[in-house]
Amino acid sequence: MANLKRALAGINRINLEGLRWRVFDCKGQVLGRLASQISVVLQGKDKPTYAPYRDDGDMCIVINAKDICVTGKKLTDKVYRWHTGYVGHLKERTLKDQMAKDPTEVIRKAVFRMLPKNKLQDDRDRKLRIFGGSEHPFTDRPLEGFVMPPRKVREMRPRVRRAMIRAQKKAEQSDAIKQAIKDKKN
Questions:
Q1: pLDDT single digits (tens) 81-140
Q2: What does each C-alpha distance from 87 to 79, 90, 92 come to in angstroms?
Q3: Ordered alpha helix ranges (H), 44-157
Q4: Under a CB-based contact definition with an 8 Å cutoff, are residues 136 and 129 in contact?
Q5: At what angle do helices 103-112 and 31-43 cross, to 10 degrees?
Q6: What predicted TM-score, i.e. pTM, was given to this entire model?
Q7: Which of 129, 132, 161, 185 is surrounded by the fewest CB atoms within 10 Å?
Q8: pLDDT tens readout for residues 20-66
């Protein structure tokens, strides 16, 4: 009941007319790449009518927040810090601990640190709804699944490409030799 109240909080302050409801599935997604796509949709930059002074973004529903991935050693090395207001009370928590405590807050911070710091930030905050599991209370709305764009990988450098081709040829030759020896035994 409390999660439902929290999910629906502030929804009456949003003009829902003409907004699309976009669903982002975090399962197996990299945190930063997903957060950048969510921030683009929240700002409305994917629409041809985008203007930086207007809030034209869509409603974003993020599900499976507990299944988000990170690259490298960020799980242990990334630290969230905050100050309580008392002298010497600088608190910190690693990403692993924060994921155990509240994985939705990890995605919220990643997204809002990518948004511009202006008067529209509160309105965009209301349009982002994050859920740890796959269930959410917005099933009665016309939902659109968001498909992550393919990742653009730059072309390999010529020297690396040649070394990779040589390694593949060498592996093929060794496989052929092993197969020939196996055929001789049989």
A1: 999 999 999 999 999 999 999 999 999 999 999 999 999 998 888 889 999 888 888 888
A2: 20, 8, 15
A3: 74-77, 95-101, 103-112, 121-126
A4: yes
A5: 60
A6: 0.76
A7: 185
A8: 889 999 998 999 999 999 999 999 999 999 999 988 889 899 999 99
